């Protein structure tokens, strides 16, 4: 991020990341409140947000721990919820894979839904960007998001029960994911995978330990992958004289 152009893309990414604070802050506040109410100490709660660093997986794991679920179920659920990060990484590797190892490691640590969403859209819209510009944009996007997630968790611990019920902080969770996912629904495979996951999650909602979400996630990814393959074959057939 040394050149003037790189700095420009850093601040462009920063501006793209700032609006996500509207959902990241209440999301983090809610986790801080819920974790402390569940019996976690302040240190444990802060470590959860700064080490695990994955809001949806944190909530899923926390709920299962409160329900005294077996530890293997807790780990499997958290990994399944965060499986999307593996797909994010594979997608970003196309654009950032030539970065130095320490930068790739840092990118992997701070990569969250918000940073991935704005970064991959920018890379696809501007494929001519240099590697330093791509890296600068990515780190710009995460700068307002990631530190404030940890700060918001701390505020949730601190203010705790003083948050009035009418604020309904839990609205941040679905809104956050809708804001991220909606712009990424670009292909038929994306749409069918999303609909599949919704229908299966509702169908299996009664299963214990959130097994329904695991089933829905795995099947939806398989369906989406098959649709992508089918579309690729159709494109090849049309292109072949």
Structure description:
Belongs to the AzlC family. Pfam families: AzlC. InterPro entries: Brnchd-chn_aa_trnsp_permease. The chain crosses the membrane at residues 20-40, 47-65, 71-96, 135-160, 166-182. The chain has 241 residues and is mostly helical. The protein folds into two domains: 4-182, no CATH class; 185-241. Helix content is 76%, strand content 0%. It is built from 13 helices and no strands. Helix 1 runs parallel beside helix 9, helix 2 (21-37) runs parallel beside helix 4 (55-66) and helix 2 packs across helix 10. The longest helix is centred in the C-terminal third of the chain and has 29 residues, at 211-239.
Helix content: over 70%
Mean pLDDT: 83
Q: Regions with pLDDT < 50 over 5+ consecutive residues?
A: none
| Radius of gyration computed on alpha carbons | 19 Å
Using DSSP, what is the number of strands? 0
Per DSSP, the total helix count is 13
Morphology = globular
Structural class of the secondary structure composition?
A: mainly alpha
Query: Which percent band covers the strand fraction?
Result: under 5%
Main location: membrane
Subcellular location: Cell membrane
Pfam family, one: AzlC
Organism: Octadecabacter dasysiphoniae
